[in-house]
Write a sequence for this structure.
């Protein structure tokens, strides 16, 4: 009999961030313990997609544009790992651990399927897991597909389903919206 370690995942918000010469996809998600009493916040940040020459000619830096979020009552998706990791063990490099994010808009255009793959944990297990977000806008082709980037640990917190939609507070906002 093999031991499995259960966690729950849910997306909190997805942004397209204009960082000057590049557009980056940033997705904030939560990893909940098996009892749903504690959680860890994580951020996926893509490597970036070069903007068009027309966009590069516009010197105005655009504010982050949110295109996905979690509403009250969002769905937590369970996933099991083979090796034991703590809530803070999903990404092991302080500046982020390489991973791939897949974003897929549903036919109803109200749900974004998200999947993190090729992520090496502190326990040296390469994992992949799904989570979801809600949207009420049509996603452009630049916002769907596979994105290479990094997953960064933001911090732990007690889990409260009613406050999850507010996202990580305090210092976490800088890495979400910053370069």
């Amino acid at each position: 009999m093999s031991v499995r370690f259960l966690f729950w995942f849910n997306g909190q918000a997805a942004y397209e961030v204009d960082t000057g010469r590049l557009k980056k996809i940033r997705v904030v998600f939560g990893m909940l313990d098996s009892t749903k009493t504690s959680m860890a916040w994580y951020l996926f940040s893509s490597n970036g997609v070069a903007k068009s020459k027309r966009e590069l000619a516009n010197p105005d830096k655009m504010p982050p544009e949110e295109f996905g979020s979690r509403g009250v009552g969002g769905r937590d998706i369970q996933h099991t790992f083979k090796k034991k990791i703590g809530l803070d063990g999903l990404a092991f490099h302080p500046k982020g651990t390489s991973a791939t994010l897949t974003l897929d808009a549903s036919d109803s255009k109200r749900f974004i399927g998200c999947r993190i793959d090729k992520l090496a944990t502190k326990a040296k297990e390469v994992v992949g897991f799904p989570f979801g977000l809600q949207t009420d806008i049509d996603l452009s082709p630049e916002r769907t597909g596979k994105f290479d980037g990094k997953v960064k640990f933001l911090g732990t917190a007690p889990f409260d389903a009613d406050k999850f939609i507010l996202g990580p507070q305090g210092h976490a906002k800088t890495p979400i919206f910053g370069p």
Remarks:
- The CA atoms of residues 101 and 147 lie 5 Å apart.
- Helices lie at 53-57, 161-164, 173-177.
- The radius of gyration is 16 Å.
- The beta strands are 5-18, 22-32, 38-46, 49-50, 65-69, 77-81, 97-105, 111-120, 126-134, 145-158.
